[in-house]
Amino acid sequence: MTQTRSGLELHPVRFLALPLDVMGRAQEQHEGLLREFALIANPHPNTDYDVPRRLLDVATALRERFGAFTAESNALIEQAMQRGERSVDAQMQLPAEAREAALSLAALLEEADDYCRNGELLTLATPPELVTFRRWYLGQIVEQLEGAAPVAWPTWRDAAIDS
After folding, report:
1. Considering the entire predicted model, what is its pTM?
2. Do residues 98 and 66 make contact, with C-beta atoms less than 8 angstroms apart?
3. What are the CA-CA distances from residue 58 to residues 34, 63, 139 (Å)?
4. What is the mean pLDDT, run by run of 10 residues, along the chain of 163 residues?
């Protein structure tokens, strides 16, 4: 555990064998969903869709609150992608409050997928492999901030598929 200049306690969160191709596809899916939500929420503030507004608010808050904590790790991941690596071990230093943010984001993304599956959005529901990745990625944040040891992607994925 480390502390920032402001005295905020940071905890290491490690992503072992982070699959870069899957992560890239997950980022594309997420960005497409956010673009559609921005189109829905911005021109129509009185829209019947509550999820787009909440997801956009959470995404903005996450970027503002945690962007500085993830910038270095994101840069290393991007460099590994550019080198054509298949996977990488990455680490972030996050405050304990990132646990609740990860739980909120996970719930909203599951809810957004319901909208997609019901045909209420143009964006397709997240494919199963990317849902598995999302649950692993956000789950690692939650679990490690609760004190659990990191679990590598292939190990977690295989256990999730078997259950």
Report:
1. 0.81
2. yes
3. 11, 9, 17
4. 70 96 91 77 55 66 71 88 94 93 88 82 88 95 97 78 62
